[in-house]
Amino acid sequence: MASSQLGIASQIATQLKSTKSLNPNAAWLTAFLTTQKPTTPLPALTSTALFRLLASDITQTLERTANFCLPPNIDNVDVKERRLSGPIVVQVLGIDDMSKSRWEQIEAIEALERGEGTKGREIIRLPPAEEEDNAGTGVQKGGGPHKLLLQDAQGSRVYGIELKDVEGVGLGMNIGCKLVLKASLVARGVLLLEPSTTSLLGGKIEVLHKAWKDNRKRDLKAAIEANSGNARASN
Fold first, then answer.
1. Percentages helix, strand, coil for the chain, rounded to the nearest 5?
2. What is the pTM assigned to this prediction?
3. What does DSSP say about strands 198-202 and 178-181: parallel, antiparallel, or unpaired?
């Protein structure tokens, strides 16, 4: 990479780290800059880099150094309590509403597919623009707490559970959405999520989101059938 590009890459990395806690790796930044015009202003380059990082798999695009990632034994249930320093960026691989049964979650998914939202207990039909958004990024409000399957840049995974409602977390949120964890508490291998320690950056990994969306109802129904079979066998 030419010296001028090195300087630009350094400035982009510094800006993304200071404003979004994102630490893109050198290989990704080099590849990114080869796709951009040399005359593109730095603010525009930074905005484009942010958009692409939020749509990326962070195991491929972010630094994997220890201070940017989860501890290697974070899911150890023998550790009663620990607090992460952060900031650590993770991406969402799955979500459950712990207040809803599996059938209720299936109904919520089908409501989103029909372009319906909720207002309290009332089902409302969304306008076309909102319906289109709901198909991919609409977050169904209410319910919770939610349980998220989270992954860091090293590929380590951990479950996170809301202690308090976190803005933007809900059924219908994008798979691949990025979160920033700061001073988060881990108890018995589970990450405890609350607004003061958890913030959403947004984003979506299209291939993962489509696979999760396509398979979610099937997996929920399979779990229901398995439980029914176990109940019949025990009688």
1. 40, 25, 35
2. 0.81
3. antiparallel
3-state secondary structure of 144: coil
| HSE-CB for 200 with a 13 A CA cutoff | 17
Burial class (CB in 10 A: 0-12, 13-18, 19+), 150: buried
Q: What is the pLDDT of residues 113-128, one digit of tens each?
A: 777 665 444 444 545 4
Q: Which residue has the tokens 């860091």?
A: 152
Say if strands 146-151 and 88-97 run parallel, antiparallel, or are unpaired: antiparallel
Which range among 138-142, 143-147, 214-218 shows the weakest confidence by mean pLDDT? Answer: 138-142
Long-range contacts of 27-31 (CB under 8 A, 24+ apart): 28/53, 28/56, 28/60, 28/61, 28/62, 30/1, 30/5
- HSE (CB half, 13 Å, CA atoms) of 73? 8
* 177 within 8 A of 136, measured Cβ to Cβ: no
